[in-house]
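Hi F.,

I've been meaning to write this up properly since the lab meeting, where we talked about keeping a consistent format for the predictions we share between groups. The idea is simple: the sequence comes first, exactly as it goes in, then the structure tokens exactly as they come out, then a line or two of notes. No screenshots and no reformatting. I'm using this chain as the first example so we have something concrete to point to.
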Amino acid sequence: MKPGTVRIIGGQYRRTPISIVPVAGLRPTPDRVRETVFNWLEHLLGALAAVEALDLFAGSGALGFEAASRGAKRVVLVEHHPKAAAALMQLQRRLGAAAVTVLQADWQAAAARLAPASFDLVFLDPPFDGGVLPRALEVACRLVRPAGLLYVESASALDNGPEGLPARHGLTLERHGRAGMVHFHLLRAPPS
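Output, unedited:
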């Protein structure tokens, strides 16, 4: 694989390379992590055909396009940076990925326009610096359906105790992994 690319690893778009736009802070989720996460999702959800997913910090689009490739019914990718958003739109057109919608917008502005409880799965991979995660998780909890799943990447493991960030939102930790300096978590929203 060429430097500056990741690839879609499963489903109908398998092996499709995704070029990484040189944007400060862009950290595409590595192939190995996506493979693990989608194994978790398929174990917990079964087929993804009925799943509606949101990627609030799309970046390269690797997570969202992976979900679409594996049959997700609808995938909304939100990306603020114009060059990264343009690359996502170009990939969507090239693949003919009708289930994918790209919104070039700030994540908070986009989230404000989305209907509450309208997604089964929300991907959150915000910048590690700047303290965005607590607010992003709060917003994602509004957008995910009851008992829906939230995927979160962070620089450190989320505190799973009673005072931790997930517990403050009524979320339960389903799975956790680590790859290098990145911790990845799968959280479940309360049933209602």
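Notes:
The domain at 5-188 is CATH 3.40.50.150 (Rossmann fold).
The chain has six helices and nine strands.

If this format works for you, I'll send the rest the same way.

G.
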